[in-house]
Amino acid sequence: MQLRGQRVFARVDENGNLTVDRGRVEIRYKAQSPRAYHASPGNLEVDANEPILPDTHCALDGEDGAPAKKPRTKRGIKAPTSDANPPLAPEANEYLFYADGACSGNPGPAGLGIVMLFDDKRREFSEFLGHGTNNVAELTAILRACEAVTDASRPVRVYTDSNYSIGVLTKSWKARANQELIRETKQALLRLKDVELRYVRGHHGIPLNERADELARQAVSTARSTGWIDLR
Which residues, 6+ apart, have CB-to-CB distance to 6 below 8 Å? Predict the structure, then answer.
């Protein structure tokens, strides 16, 4: 956006509409800036041909010097956290997931990918969703991960690089779109006795997250779903 002749980053929804909270819009002056400001929506003008960027383009709360806020939870869902070194294997008795979504055009052809690890098993999943948005793909990936759990009494960790998904599922962010999908995903999470969403940085060379991203992009490029595939 432009704010009084200066280029800034402003929070918008998936359709590019300004996200207004109590009459103000969150802005940042630089990419990866840890400091957020707020501006009147009437003072912001759209830069022509600028893409909608993911939330991770700017620093998240508690990262890179950003002031940490105490996380809030939705009933039985644990507060989200971020690991410096995300695991490559599950802990004892745990289901470990890396779930990712992809979209070409946003909206456009959308798909999702999941890597699932439990006991000594590894499963992978990709699904083509047809026309949709990146946020729909990210949420559906988390939903599919929850649906794959066959023993709801066991601990479940789901890693996602979608700050949007974590926000609408655990932080009471108000969503203008995807409300039915959000409700369905929350219900799936709450059916699990011990479940935790964890944030992982996308495109930072984390192997299992990179593989989930690859599966999602594969679903988009081929317009095909593989379903669950057992690798071991």
Answer: 29
pLDDT score recorded for residue 85: 79
- What are the strands of the beta sheet with 6-7, ordered from one edge? 6-7, 2-3, 44-45
Task: Give the integer Cα–Cα distance in Å for 80 and 160.
Answer: 10
Are residues 214 and 113 in contact, defined by beta-carbon separation less than 8 angstroms?
A: yes
Torsion angle, CA of 92/98/99/103, rounded to 10 degrees?
-170
**Nearest C-alpha neighbor of 147 from the set 115, 185, 98:** 185
In angstroms, rounded to a whole number, what is the distance separating the alpha carbons of residues 117 and 126? 15
Q: Is the pTM of this model over 0.70?
A: no
Radius of gyration of the chain (CA): 18
Burial of 137 (0-12, 13-18, 19+ CB in 10 A): buried
pLDDT at 68 > cutoff 80: no
- Higher-scoring residue by pLDDT: 65, 80: 80
Residue spans of alpha helices (H) in 91-206:
134-147, 163-170, 179-190
